[in-house]
Amino acid sequence: MATTTDPAPQTAGKIHARRRPGDVAFSGTALGAGILILLVLASVTVFLVIESIPAFTVPADENPILKGVSFLEYVWPLVFGTIWSALLALLIASPLAIGIALFISHYAPRKAAAVLGYIIDLLAAVSSVVFGLWGGLVLAGFVQPFYVWLNTYLGWFPLFGGQVSATGRTILTAALVLAIMILPIMTAICREVFLQTPQLHEEAALALGATRWEMIKMAVLPFARGGMVSAAMLALGRALGETMAVTMVLSVSGVITFELLTATNPSTIPANIALNFPEAYGAGISVLIATGLVLFVVTFAVNAVARWIVNRRAEFSGAN
Fold first, then answer.
1. pLDDT over 70 for what percent of the chain?
2. Which residue from 275, 280, 255, 281 is spatially nearest to 266, judged by alpha carbons?
3. Bridge partners, residue 164, by sequence
4. How far is CA 232 from CA 41, 89, 119, 228, 310, in A?
5. What are the DSSP calls for 132-197, one per residue?
6. How far apart are CA 37 and CA 125, in angstroms?
7. Fewest Cβ atoms nearer than 10 Å: which of 17, 108, 236, 306?
8. Contact 317, 224 (CB under 8 A)
9. What digits encode the pLDDT tens for the residues 183-224?
10. Are 55 and 287 in contact (CB under 8 A)?
11. What does the alpha-carbon distance between residue 100 and residue 136 come to, in Å, rounded to a whole number?
């Protein structure tokens, strides 16, 4: 009677593949980079908190920056100006970025799309100082007649009311410059997300008789919703922290106002730090660092909200 041999018993537990030296080096480098980023973030937070303490302990009358007002009264107009200018820039840049990304990914011929994408990406390499000079010396004077027209025919709307600035250096001009600055990052991310739409989804929509635009509405935009939100939040973070362009364009007066065309404009935290830091001393430096801490918290909150939105929308995007 023939006997059959049992197969060799398998080792209990999981089978681990042999790790090559390159894999070990890459995983170690990635882990080290992640730890380093956390350490840098923690050190920045600790520095800002420690250096901000004198801003709250020294009496406001003795502080050369506060000049008798409380820190909250000093920083609130700056927070408003920072968020207001960034939101305006995002409102202007978002439809342009999405439209350009859709044109490059789904409408333009291959060669034209490559050239246009390259040109858009080049905008990210332009220094903020160059944007600031161009915005203050060229754009402001160019759009000032348009501001007069807006005030003449739409002055009944609160945003376009008030006395129009004679120089054009307004919060709307600063927002236009910021919109151009954040356009490359939004366009690049949206373009890559649009290109990752499953081919079968697009072909299925076209096979059902949809036009190209209907296919984009049914297949591309729902799939890319989370990516578009991420692009918008990254661009918003860039706009919140921009310094030199706003400093060189905006004519500030440190007030809270929603009027877009007047010479009375709110300032931003980065621009305020850049303007006052060279002459600051003692507790005044601590006040400026404290405003930087507020900006750090605002930026962190924006990114946290963006992450929450992306995670919430991921199950509806079709990417799972």
1. 92
2. 255
3. 262
4. 23, 11, 20, 6, 11
5. HHHIIIIIHHHHHHHHHHHHHHHTTSGGG-SPBPSS--SHHHHHHHHHHHHHHHHHHHHHHHHHTS
6. 24
7. 17
8. yes
9. 998 998 899 899 888 888 888 888 888 888 889 988 898 888
10. yes
11. 26
Residue whose structure tokens are 């041999």: 5
Average pLDDT score over residue span 46-61:
84
- Element at 77 (helix H, strand E): helix 71-102
> Which pLDDT does position 313 carry in this prediction?
60
Distance CA 35, CA 131 (A): 35
Q: At what angle do helices 71-102 and 269-276 cross, to 10 degrees?
A: 120
Provide the 3-class DSSP secondary structure of residue 319. coil
Helices (H) and strands (E) in the chain, counts: 12, 0
3-state secondary structure of 205: helix
- In this structure, the chain runs to a length of 320
Contact 233, 305 (CB under 8 A): yes
Q: Which residue has the tokens 């999981």?
A: 14
Q: Hey, what are 177's tokens? A: 């410059």
With H, G, I as helix, E, B as strand and everything else as coil, classify residue 81. helix
Per-domain residue ranges of the chain? 29-317
Topology of the domain comprising 29-317: MetI-like fold (1.10.3720)
